[in-house]
Amino acid sequence: MNILVCISHVPDTTSKINFTENNTVFDSGGVQFVINPNDEFGLTRAIWLKEKQGAQVHVVHVGTSKSDPTLRKCLAIGADKAYRIDTPAVDGSSVAKELAAFVKTNSYDLIIAGRESIDYNGGMVPGMLAALLDIPFVPNCVGLEVDGTTAVAEREIDGGREKLKGSLPMVIGGQKGLVEETDLRIPNMRGIMQARQKPFEVVPAQQVEAISEDMKFEKPAPKAEVKLVPADDLDQLIELLHKEANVL
């Protein structure tokens, strides 16, 4: 079984975010980048399938050479081969089309992508990729088992979970639940050394035209000052809830 895991290169949530050029360009200076958490859950699940069933696990990323350390980390965690499609990731549509073109020239039984990336939270790429490839898609996936050419996936839905069964190939939009945070693997020295010997291929891009662009960024408004109300002053509490919070 051949598994492809789509990887996003995203800012660490602890990094301080700033913008330049009148808030039209993201300032990457001093920002620590990591594997998108939803992608890392999927990668860990793929490695479990590798260890259990002897699957081959490849990772792919659309981006520039700045993201190479993230792909090297994927190899150190346990992926067998990495591909970087050599073009900046401009929007979800162009990324999905680049990935689809790559998959069509390779053979994969299972494609795992994160439900969404934590930078833009668009959640568009996995579904568009499945549509472009004309294969089944399971979003919000929190459970996955594969037996031969059959996959059983569990996904979150409103009010509960739903279990689905289908034939491979298939696209999975993974998230926490495929594995837990405690299951994520930290590269050890052996894995880091082995990663240097594993194949890493830079793939020419299809030069797909983006259909959207970032016009301006805006930070969330600062949190308002907290007002403390004495426990026995119900009149003041009601007045604040009515006049300021507008919830009464």
Strand content: 25-35%
In round numbers, the mean pLDDT is: 94
Radius of gyration: 21 Å
User: Given the structure, what is the number of helices?
Assistant: 6
Top CATH class: Alpha Beta
> In terms of structural class, how would the helical and strand content be classed?
alpha/beta
List the domain count as a whole number.
1
Number of strands: 13
In which range does the helix fraction lie?
25-40%
Q: Low-confidence spans: pLDDT under 50, at least 5 residues? A: none
Query: Could you state the oligomeric state of the chains shown?
Result: single chain
CATH topology (fold) name: Rossmann fold
In angstroms, what separates the terminal alpha carbons?
58 Å
Principal-axes shape call = globular
Superfamily at the CATH H level? HUPs
CATH architecture: 3-Layer(aba) Sandwich
Question: What does this 3D model show about the protein?
Answer:
The protein is α/β, with parallel strands linked by helices and 248 residues long. The protein has one domain (2-216): HUPs (Rossmann fold, 3-Layer(aba) Sandwich). Helices cover 27% and strands 29% of the residues. It contains six helices and 13 strands. The protein has helices at residues 37-53, 68-77, 92-104, 125-133, 189-195, 234-243, and strands at 2-6, 9-11, 18-20, 25-27, 33-35, 56-63, 81-86, 110-114, 137-147, 150-157, 160-167, 170-174, 200-204. It has a nine-stranded mixed β-sheet with strand order 11-10-9-12-8-1-6-7-13, with helices on both faces. A two-stranded antiparallel sheet has the order 2-5. Strands 3-4 form a two-stranded antiparallel sheet. Helix 2 links the parallel strand 6 (56-63) and strand 7 (81-86). It is globular, with a radius of gyration of 21 Å. It starts with a strand and ends in a 5-residue tail after the last helix.
